[in-house]
């Protein structure tokens, strides 16, 4: 995912000139390839005429700022509420900006996810999932998201199903269907005994698809610092993924593992526990080649 900066409204058309410093919305990378000595990226973002007139990002010419890098656009298009824009960059820009870390997200069909969880075929099998969503406040691409209605000591994710459905989410992992959602017919509800365990099962399956070595970091303190230190030392030589921020819990580790893809050459994940016997679940997901204890 990348940040797009807002375009300016000039008369009745949106110009591609960007107002620097204002992140308008996010886009996802749907294609990356190296071609004729340059790097080609194509991005998809939400875009309708109504959104554009309210000032949301849209571009049909000129330049676009992606993650703070201003670039000339090519092949702009809007189809069925989706905007598309491509950029080509020279090797120097690729190697010296965060573009070298931008990757195409892997997707699973909702049918495949149901199979992983040993569940029946979903009611609407056509959806493809690229985002595992555990916090309703982090919603970006509703149609690509699978929301896990997790129960915690102070909250219950089932409380947010209705609002997420109103925002466009159509795929949910739940332990029951609340009364407010009983009549919903346009969504998939994967009903499981334990939502957190389902999240971990999907992450474990995803981890098993890759042979890239994984470094696991654990300890009472310093895990995040060591992870970032290793990443900075090694990222120039390997295509790497790492735990975002301090994602080292029973929920954070699955979300970290989900970042692995077919281009991953090395991964660095944190593992932290707050109760006895929690490490076994983390180890079975991470499956480290090398362990570091801080």
Please outline the helices and strands.
Layout: E1 2-10, E2 13-35, E3 38-46, H1 49-53, E4 63-66, E5 69-79, E6 82-89, H2 91-96, E7 108-109, H3 110-116, E8 128-129, E9 131-133, E10 145-148, H4 161-166, E11 171-174, E12 188-191, H5 195-207, E13 214-218, H6 223-234, E14 240-242, H7 252-257, E15 266-270, H8 279-286, E16 290-293
Parallel strand pairs: 9-10, 10-11, 11-12, 13-15, 13-16, 14-15
Antiparallel strand pairs: 1-2, 2-3, 3-6, 4-5, 5-6, 7-8
Tell me what the structure shows:
The protein is an alpha/beta fold and 294 residues long. The chain has helices at residues 49-53, 91-96, 110-116, 161-166, 195-207, 223-234, 252-257, 279-286, and strands at residues 2-10, 13-35, 38-46, 63-66, 69-79, 82-89, 108-109, 128-129, 131-133, 145-148, 171-174, 188-191, 214-218, 240-242, 266-270, 290-293. A hairpin with a 2-residue loop joins strand 1 (2-10) and strand 2. The protein is globular and about 55 Å long.
Short description:
By secondary structure, the chain is of the alpha/beta class. The protein has eight helices and 16 strands.
Order of the strands making up the biggest sheet: 1-2-3-6-5-4
- Which spans of ≥5 residues are poorly predicted at pLDDT below 50? 6-23
User: What is the β-strand count?
Assistant: 16
Total count of helical runs of at least 4 residues: 8
């Amino acid at each position: 995912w990348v940040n797009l900066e807002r375009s300016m409204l000039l008369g009745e058309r949106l110009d591609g000139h960007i107002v620097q410093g204002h992140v308008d919305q996010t886009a996802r990378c749907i294609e990356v390839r190296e071609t004729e000595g340059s790097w080609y990226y194509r991005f998809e973002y939400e875009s309708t005429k109504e959104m554009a007139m309210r000032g949301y990002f849209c571009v049909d010419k000129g330049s676009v700022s992606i993650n703070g890098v201003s670039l000339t656009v090519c092949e702009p298009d809007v189809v069925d509420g989706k905007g598309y824009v491509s950029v080509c960059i020279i090797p120097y820009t690729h190697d010296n900006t965060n573009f070298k870390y931008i990757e195409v997200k892997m997707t699973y069909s909702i049918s495949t996810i149901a199979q992983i969880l040993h569940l029946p075929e979903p009611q609407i099998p056509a959806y493809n999932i690229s985002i595992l969503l555990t916090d309703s406040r982090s919603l970006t691409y509703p149609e690509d998201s699978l929301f896990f209605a997790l129960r915690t000591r102070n909250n219950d994710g089932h409380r947010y199903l209705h609002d997420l459905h109103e925002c466009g989410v159509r795929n949910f992992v739940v332990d029951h269907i609340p009364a407010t959602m009983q009549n919903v017919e346009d969504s998939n509800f994967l009903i499981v005994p334990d939502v957190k365990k389902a999240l971990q099962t999907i992450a474990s399956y995803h981890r098993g698809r890759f042979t890239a070595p994984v470094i696991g970091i654990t300890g009472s303190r310093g895990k995040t610092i060591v992870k970032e230190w290793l990443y900075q030392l090694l990222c120039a030589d390997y295509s790497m993924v790492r735990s975002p921020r301090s994602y080292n819990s029973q929920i954070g580790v699955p979300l970290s593992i989900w970042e692995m893809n077919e281009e991953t050459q090395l991964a660095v994940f944190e593992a932290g526990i707050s109760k006895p016997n929690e490490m076994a679940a983390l180890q079975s997901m991470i499956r480290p080649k090398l362990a570091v204890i801080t």
